[in-house]
Write a structure and sequence with these properties.
Elements: E1 8-10, E2 15-18, E3 22-25, E4 32-34, E5 41-43, E6 46-52, E7 56-64, E8 72-80, E9 83-92, E10 95-104, E11 106-113, E12 120-127, E13 130-137, E14 144-150, E15 157-164, E16 172-182
Antiparallel strand pairs: 1-6, 2-3, 3-16, 4-5, 6-15, 7-12, 7-16, 8-9, 8-15, 9-10, 10-11, 12-13, 13-14
Amino acid sequence: MIDVTGFQWLNEPKSWSAAETLTVQTDPDTDFWRTTHYGFIRDTGHVFAREVSGDFRLRTSFAGAYTHQYDQAGAMLRIDAENWIKTGIELVDGHQQASVVVTRGLSDWSVTPIPDAERISIEIERSGDAVTVRYGLDEAEPTTMLRLAYYPPAVPTLAGVMCASPDGPGYSVTFDRLELTTG
């Protein structure tokens, strides 16, 4: 069962439910991106998060029915529209990629090819001025490091799960784990 106490939506999707799992049908034309390469700013993706300060660990596991270019799901940290990190799975050229976008005014994007997985686990750990992103495939715990990035220390941030459909009509994603621990 997912405990959603204290979590709230940024860009709430039209269709979602929370009980044993959090299931979301993404809306079309949703994404998070700032300028780099594409020249546009999008701040319309779905985020289900709560505010935390200081050090924390966020863990989530999810499975999506990704169908269109850039369909994505995972975890997100967000200070404001210009300072955030999103990570998870992104469908790129027909294949799942482990993806991280770090945005400090402008977005940068890195992807790592992975075998298509039924389910992925993501962990974001904030310690001081650093965020470490790890992932695991299928039933594996998130132990493979994907990215180490600067993140302003001690600034309140939203931390939670995200999903979006930049190019497609939307798809279904189910989060079966959402754990946020502080300290």
